Amino acid sequence: MALLQADHLTVYVAFHFVLITLLSFTSATPGRGSANVLSLPQPYDFLYYTGVRSYFGEEWVKAAELLEKAILTKESLSRVRRQCHEECVEAGREAFNRLDSEKGSLHDLWTLDWVQQRAECLRFCVGRSVSPTAQLPVSTDIDYEFGSRNPYNFLQVTYYKLEKLQKAASAAHTYFVANPSHLEMRNNIEKYRRMEGVTEEAFQDRELENENHWVLYDSAVQYEASSDWLKAAEKWKECVNETLRQTDECRLQCEMASQRLPEDRGVDGSKSVYEQAADLSLSLLSCRQSCVTQVATRPGRISSQEDFLPTQLEHRHIAQFKAGDVGGAVQTLRSLLLFYPSDHDSLDNLQLYSETLGGDTESQGTQPAQEIVGYINRALDEKKLLYFGMENLDFSFTDPDLWTPEDVVPESQRDNWRAVKEKINVKMEEGEKKEEVDDSGFYAGGPVPQVGVTITMDDTVLNGTNRVVLDDVMTEKECKKILQLATAAASAGDGYRGRRSPHTPHETFEGLTVLRAVKLAQDDMVNQTDARLFYELGERVKVLLHSYFRSPSILYTSFTHLVCRSAIAGDQEGRLDLSHPVHVDNCLLEPETNQCWREPPAFIHRDLSAFLYLNDNFDGGDLFFTKRDAKTVTARVKPSCGRLVGFSSGPINPHGVSAVTRGRRCALALWFTKEKLYRDMEREEAAAMWAAGGQSVVKNEEEEKEGGASPVRNARSQASRQGRGRVTGARDEL
């Protein structure tokens, strides 16, 4: 009896998805309706290969034409499939409606009638716009080329050769979105930004239509970071809707794309027609399920984001609640509970929301969203069929979801299913423990506005988050001027109550503040232009890092210090210590527990740190980043003239300086804050002194926006009045 039931269900699986099977056969087979080809006579893989050959043959005009045509043809093919799918929805509707009332052989006949009418409609619809060869499946190599956006890599060079810089910039940006670790392309983009005739409109992702849910996701996260809960809730709603739309689009392409017949895929010829149809149907069904992973994978990433849709719902209900939309939060939370009905945190939140509403959580407006209900039901129906295929038809299927209920999985498959799920959960938990989260609100990867500055190292190369190395921020001439200023005016132990060796007995420490430099310049003890350059370099660094780290708020300079460390001759043999111990700029690092305490005496107001190096004629003195254990080095940076290192100041970026064993190492150390209260009043005093003398300085963004300096006393001055001693410098200049 069990065998008979299994055979019957095999037939059911075949019939249930035979529409997809027949569609696959017919869309890849020349039909009578394909004689009138209107728009897509050539396959996009053929156009692409031909375009690449033209590229290597340096036939730039032809290469551009063919590569663009390949991209357009691929997009058009997807659009034709989508339109035909919509047009043929009603085909065979009468036959389909009779399926529920018929049984036995009549049910099978009406099924075949429905399938045939749909298939004929689709074959005719696709065939009137797409040639038979253009309907054939492409190779996995072509899928990879287009998935990694390589056509835009070729187009970027091609348009550059043709001197079509606007188009070259657009192609470069589109390629870079999916290949964010490609430093050469990033630097090309910065060069395009500075070229005449290239406007900001060029830097748009040409593939945005397929990735817009990630734009919305990032936007929602940024609104959360700034506690704008109303806008965050709106963006999360848009993100959920766009994720559902992208998933449906992916599923549609699975159904409509041409598939090889089972025989062509090496299927055992002894299988019955029904078994072969079921095999192909299950493959297409598996493709539908894989859309969850595809949509949840960022451009340029290998791994998908687990629980992508449930995560969005979780963010959304919290944002709605904080924005005051408690009823909406209940509806979203109920939608989330469809994925995880027993989640304790969600149930506690539901209780909280219920109490806030006075117990009314059962009204129509607070029930789960229908689109989520449909999403869940559809996914469960498909999973049941796929797990049946695994149990009875030797079909291989990897479930993309962590929320799949255990009762959907056949008893014979559950041990293996539990083991796989446990591995994923353990991996996620380990990742959460190891992964540092930067809550600074900065997002590396913005533009670099200064001409000639290049990005040498980014997050990927530096193995961290919100880290960057920029080169050519200063010229050799400017470095020499500031070095001369340091030689003429730097004070021993400046910033450390006169201690010549505050960090190590093997080195001496000298420092100079902007205000002291201005006062010395007014007394004609140092060059006025050198002192002015010292001030203006701080503004230059702030502009660069504000742009690159895409700061959502105004940045204020918190402190600027010209510092030099010199090795003490004859005192370096056998040295094992550091020039500056590992530390974090805005919290007290405790390596033994991996904790970082954001409390005084740490400079808790610091948000962004920067070091602008002036020379490299010394030994040692490398900046290095570590993990919170202060031992595991994750990246090293060697100083050189005009090299700028910028990073967020929090526990994500512990850092130190290796011993300077010969020579003198000089740099500008700068810190920035989002809090106006902690801005550097000495810089404003310096600017006021210049103004009083009839000389102007470069105004910072805050002065331009706010009409000058505010009389409010800053925190460093307040600290002085509270008996902690006047803070004339910082403890951790690099």
Note the main attributes of this structure:
alpha+beta, 8-stranded antiparallel sheet, 4-stranded antiparallel sheet, 16 strands, disordered N terminus
Topology, please?
Elements: H1 2-16, H2 18-27, H3 44-56, H4 60-87, H5 93-97, H6 104-127, H7 140-147, H8 150-161, H9 165-178, H10 183-193, H11 208-225, H12 229-256, H13 273-295, H14 308-322, H15 326-339, H16 344-356, H17 370-392, H18 411-434, E1 454-457, E2 467-471, H19 476-489, E3 491-492, E4 507-513, H20 514-522, H21 528-548, E5 556-567, E6 580-583, E7 588-590, E8 595-597, E9 608-613, E10 619-620, E11 623-626, E12 633-637, E13 644-648, E14 655-657, E15 660-662, E16 664-673, H22 681-692, H23 701-706, H24 715-724
Antiparallel strand pairs: 1-2, 2-13, 3-4, 4-5, 5-16, 6-14, 7-8, 9-13, 9-16, 10-15, 11-12, 11-14
